[in-house]
């Protein structure tokens, strides 16, 4: 019999239940839906005292999923079917709110790994899958001009400007629905 001892590396939010959690891509930050009304972000490399680096008051604490094309962006949903997209550079409010229109609520959401800006979701007790294609309208602080970050933009292009771009607004420009045949 193999005896392996387990050691706790760190504890975060120990007095609250975790409803969902996700690593932000390419970072040491974990984002967790806590209880029924908070999302908290924890930087695990520079945070020995276990305090969150940000806290969001929201009911959209379920199904947290990080965007593979933008390390600072993640999405979550609420029990009433509302999806919120968050950007850690503008954490005071969601950069996008989408009503999923699923009759019995959302079963899960995920970002597309192949195309930038595509978020998918499926409903509880529903064979329907929806895709929301998004674009972000941004302001480049260095150049002082408004620009549109295209969904076709590569990850490396986004990484080059992520620190100099302030997100102004994110919009859904196309919605698609399909049926799962199981």
From TrEMBL:
Which terms in the GO cellular component ontology are assigned? cytoplasm
Q: Which GO terms describe its biological process?
A: positive regulation of TORC1 signaling
Q: What SUPFAM superfamilies does the annotation carry?
A: WD40 repeat-like
User: Pfam families, from UniProt?
Assistant: MIOS_WD40
**UniProt-listed InterPro entries:** MIOS/Sea4, WD40/YVTN_repeat-like_dom_sf, WD40_repeat_dom_sf
Question: Would you say which domain of life the source belongs to?
Answer: Eukaryota
Listed name of the protein:
Uncharacterized protein
Source organism of the structure = Boothiomyces macroporosus
Its taxonomic placement starts with: Eukaryota, Fungi, Fungi incertae sedis, Chytridiomycota, Chytridiomycota incertae sedis
């Amino acid at each position: 019999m193999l005896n392996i001892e387990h050691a706790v590396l760190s504890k975060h939010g120990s007095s609250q239940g975790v409803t969902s959690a996700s690593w932000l891509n390419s970072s040491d930050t974990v984002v967790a839906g806590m209880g029924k009304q908070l999302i908290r972000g924890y930087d695990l490399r520079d945070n020995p005292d276990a305090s969150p680096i940000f806290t969001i008051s929201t009911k959209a604490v379920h199904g947290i999923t990080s965007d593979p094309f933008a390390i600072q962006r993640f999405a979550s949903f609420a029990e009433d079917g509302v999806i919120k997209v968050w950007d850690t550079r503008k954490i005071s409010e969601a950069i996008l709110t989408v009503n999923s229109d699923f009759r019995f609520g959302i079963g899960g959401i995920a970002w597309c790994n192949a195309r930038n800006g595509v978020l998918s979701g499926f409903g509880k007790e529903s064979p329907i899958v929806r895709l929301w294609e998004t674009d972000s309208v941004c302001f480049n602080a260095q150049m002082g001009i408004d620009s549109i970050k295209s969904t076709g933009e590569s990850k490396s292009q986004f990484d080059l400007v992520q620190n100099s771009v302030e997100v102004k607004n994110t919009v859904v420009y196309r919605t698609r629905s399909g049926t799962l045949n199981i």
